Amino acid sequence: MAVQQLPGYKPLCYIKGTLYLYRKGYIYRLVENQPEKVIQVYSSTAKESLRVLARLFRTEPKYAVPINESQMLLVGHRAIKAVDVEKQVVEDISSSKEGFSDPLNICAGSGKWVALWGDYGSNAEHDSINIYGLTQENKVETVYSFKSGQVRHIHNIIPKRSGGYYIFTGDQEKDAGIYKANVPFDQVEPVEIGKQQYRAVIGFDTPKGLLYATDAVNEKNYVYLFDGKGEPQKICALNGSCIYGTEFQGKYYFSTTVEPDENNRGVTSWISSKRGEGILSDEIYLVEIDEEMNFKTIEKFKKDALPMKLMQYGAIQFPKGNTDELWCYPVAVKRHDGVALKLM
Q1: Contact predicate 155/201, CB 8 Å
Q2: C-beta of residue 282 within 8 angstroms of C-beta of residue 319
Q3: 290: part of which helix (H) or strand (E)?
Q4: Is the pLDDT of residue 328 over 90?
Q5: Confidence (pTM)
Q6: 3-class SS at 196?
Q7: Which residue has the higher pLDDT, 174 or 155?
Q8: Vertex 56, ends 1 and 61: CA angle to 5°?
Q9: pLDDT digit string (tens) for 208-263?
Q10: Beta strand pairing status for 26-31 and 18-23?
């Protein structure tokens, strides 16, 4: 279990090996195992006075991504902010377009764009979907657009070991699945599309191929390895959908999610405790996979009693960036909800 716990702090990312955290409107850095206040990023409100209110009103940022040795991109409240932890400056970068929410993930880029992300949301009108790039001057550019009705939204952009990127798209459209792009995004083409086994949020381009976990609520989920020589190979079954993961010291970590049946809609869906058919238990599993594709479950957390849709899904989130420590952040679980945990 955890070797260190920080109740009330959300681990965000690592910059130059230092862990940065969030608590009640402020960014902190971890110095000699103690949080040290750095800068205020959101206005202080009564909604964060209690953990239950913070969950209800989604007051915390979703995540942060380091983009250089002093800056992170902070994502939350349908906006992206650049936070310079050395100069202690916060700059508004971008806001989600009408009808969309926060990007589900941001990819640290290279060359012209220091970060890349795509539109994410329900997209009820089946609008065209954009991928955006952030320049060194903190300017946002549209680097590619999927045509209207092609895909619903962007789940993630994954750097390829050979150069360029994989693009994970969703959800149910026949063209949704895995795409690949070159570095300038002037060549984008499908890799595998049209089936749920090609739809994912989290993945890693490993020496053996693209390792990814599926995100189905109402179908069985697996971790797959795609080496480009045929159908993706099943590495292991999962007890639920997967939307969070991280890489640490040559191993890959996937956490399952406890979320509700997406066929249950209307007012009652907000308080329903009915899980989707692909969510096999009320437990969140943390699965470790090594470079030889051996797998094991290293932690389990039990979903708490509060309703999933109203009070957030049961999940384990991770800070982004490189470090020699493995921190995580369980959400909507018994005993450890809202507690930064150092596992290794």
Answers
A1: yes
A2: no
A3: none
A4: yes
A5: 0.95
A6: helix
A7: 155
A8: 65
A9: 999 999 999 999 999 999 998 889 999 999 999 999 999 999 999 999 999 999 88
A10: antiparallel
Q: Is 81 helix (H, G, I), strand (E, B) or coil?
A: strand
* CA distance from start to end of the chain: 9
For residue range 178-208, list pLDDT tens digits in order: 999 999 999 999 999 999 999 999 999 999 9
Alpha-carbon distance of 176 to 193, in angstroms, equals 5
Going by their DSSP bridges, the two strands 89-95 and 79-84 should be labelled as antiparallel
Q: What does the DSSP assignment read for 99-128?
A: T--S-S--EE--TTEEEEEE--S--TT---
Residues 6+ apart with CB under 8 A from 152: 122, 123, 126, 129, 169, 170, 171, 172, 173, 176
Among the listed residues 343, 275, 259, the one whose alpha carbon sits nearest the alpha carbon of residue 309: 259
* Beta bridge partner(s), residue 206: 209
Token pair for residue 296? Answer: 């094991």
Our CA dihedral for 301, 305, 310, 316, rounded to 10 degrees, sits at -10
The two tokens of residue 243 are 């939307």
> Residue 321 contacts by C-beta under 8 Å, 6 or more apart in sequence?
13, 14, 15, 65, 66
Strands in 140-146's sheet, in edge-to-edge order, are 107-108, 113-118, 129-135, 140-146
ω into 324 cis (within 30 of 0): no
